[in-house]
Amino acid sequence: MYKIFIYIFLFTVISVKSFADQSDKRLNYLFNKLIITENQQEIIKVTNQIWNIWHEIDDPKITRDFETGVQMMNLGYLPRAIDYFNQVIVSRPNFAEAWNKRATAHFIMGNFDLSMQDISQTLQLEPRHFGALDGMGLIFIHLNQPEKAIEIYDKMLEIFPYSIDTKMKKEKILSSTTKST
Question: What ranges in 76-129 are assigned the alpha helix state H?
Fold first, then answer.
């Protein structure tokens, strides 16, 4: 009887893929780890784990549309990518990563206003979304608003205070604003 229970439990756990996204309970642990982690390789490892969780979807059609959108974006078919992300957002409006990917496609196309709207929605759903914050920082740089970009990188440093990459981005902005004054 005990073996049957174990088999049923394992079958259930293996066969049911849960919807993770930004509401996954594993994220709090990983974000807490980022706050204290000083090792740059470990920071990369933890952020990759977070990205993987943000990409988890429980619906095969939504997964297919989302992944197709990412592929279209990577191939440079940006309007088509946006169409796929639109489909995902209509089906799952609380899926922060779909908003973030659409923001990225808009950014690449130079549609900064639309990108910023999608970034805002991403951050409303997941305020710790360092990818969306980084995108917002880049938009402020493109719009020649270095003070706002610095504020964004300060927010990112609250998420991972020991990130050399983020510190370097902030320092680059600071040094370019110092040179121009």
Answer: 78-91, 96-109, 112-125
CB atoms within 10 A of CB 96: 23
Per-residue b or e along 150-169, where b marks 16 or more CB atoms closer than 10 Å to that residue's CB:
bebbebbeebbebbeebeeb
Q: What is the Cα gyration radius of the chain? A: 19
- Read off the pLDDT of residues 52-90 as tens digits, 9 standing for 90 and up: 999 998 899 999 999 999 999 999 999 999 999 999 999
Cβ neighbours of 26 (radius 10 Å): 13
Domains by residue range for the chain, with CATH: 59-180 (1.25.40.10)
CA 105 to chain centre: 13
- Report yes or no: 122 and 100 within 8 Å, Cβ to Cβ: yes
Residue 13 has a CB neighbour count (10 Å cut-off) of: 10
87 contacts 65 by C-beta, under 8 angstroms: yes
How many whole angstroms separate alpha carbon 118 and alpha carbon 115?
Answer: 5
Eight-state DSSP code of residue 110? T
**Is 95 a residue whose pLDDT tops 90?**
yes
